[in-house]
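Hey L., structure's done. Input below.
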Amino acid sequence: MALVAVEPLAERNHTRQKGQQDLSPPPDVVTTPCDPWPRPYYLEDGLRKVHPYHYTYNTYCKERWRGRELLDIFATEFRDRPQAYYKDAIERGNVVVNGARVPSVNAIIKNGDIISHTLHRHEPPVTAQPIGIVHEDNDMIVINKPAGVPVHPAGRYNFNSIIEIMRAERSHAWNLLPCNRLDRLTSGIMFIGKNGKAAEKLSMQIQGRSVKKEYVARVIGEFPEGDVICEQPVMQISPKLGLNRARASGKEAKTVFKRLAYYPPIRDANGEEEQEDNRTEKEKVRDSKMEWKAKEGHSIIRCLPVTGRTHQLRVHLQFLGHPISNDPIYCNQRVFGPSLAAGDDLSDHDEDIISRLSRMGKSEVAEAMAYHDEMMEEYNKKKAEKMTGHLCDICHTPLYSDPGAHELGIYLHAKRYACKEGKWEYESSLPDWALPPPGMAGPTEATRETDRLALAESLGCIEMSSNEGHGKIVEQRPYIEPSKSLWVMPG
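Output:
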């Protein structure tokens, strides 16, 4: 199937919306039960925002909560707000147990108790970029998901999710059935089933590895030419943080990589980088000790996963020494050190890595694209400036300014999905960040001169041997000499 032009979802459904029952707009403050229609969206400064609303979370008493005081549970288990807020919420009756107010903040929680917390919910903004329609028929919709928008309501996101945005533009009663998953920070091709039978059929195809997938990524440094295959198993080392690593004891994982373009730093006539170097001598000495600093420029690469492990592409690229340029986790020196864990398949430092990432997550840094040390101070300044100094008139929550573009996604895009039997194929264009920089020539589309998935299945393996911190990538093909060295890592 040829490349299909992407049409905004709202425009396709303009006529469909006519004749639907007009529902009353939501009040300024929505109270529980919360199902306002139309959804309380508004667009501003390139962002989709949600008017704050009241929402009730219900949770059963967990085993570790038994016999503990209510305030102590909130103060230690829910850290997004200060203890003073939770104390006030309990005393006001915004936190109840089994539907009733408790006599004091020291009330003891027992097995079987249901704790309900009603709060004024402030959802983070997401991009206002429309959800593009690549294809639609009676059974499914193929969309081009914008970066930074979660698929399902989760955590701080509810109405600002793919499911709720599409429901708002179609019908309140419409039940969306996503068939494949993309991380919140990732953009690209997604399949939405219109009925259970069609969704189950396509989901089984994807899970059964009968669908070819191609991603495009932007990574640091000059990625090696040729076909690079990584077969490092992937293991989740922290379910809470969603952190995965390359580990011999992990699950089978295999990815084929092919460089599409390399763009070196832009230099002037004297060979100096055009960007002014404002670093101090101390900072220059510090940077000279950082291995990733020697990797100049960036590469655009095609990524073809043979398996589908969580964060597989991000982990494999980190292991190969070329992580995604703005990955807040796997290209984060404060978490992984100056080598960014290139070639590291050992578990010696996992606990330290988890601890560092956990601390950063609580301070919101892990959700930003602050991935190098020299960016941290500047980012913290920006982060401090996000506090507007104003409080919500209703819940007295500190209000933040809008997120920057660097916080809305990473350089990873699901570009193409195709049935191995050749029955269907859907593709999007290259994202802006994958196009040649101003003044440089380069590809504006990924070409499929060979089928890299077929190549991966025909090749032997990629060898990553540890030798004093160095590894070797070996390509084995039946028509060339065995163990031809493609790349020495780090390199």
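The chain is about 20% helix and 25% strand. Residues 350-362 form the longest helix (13 residues).

-- N.
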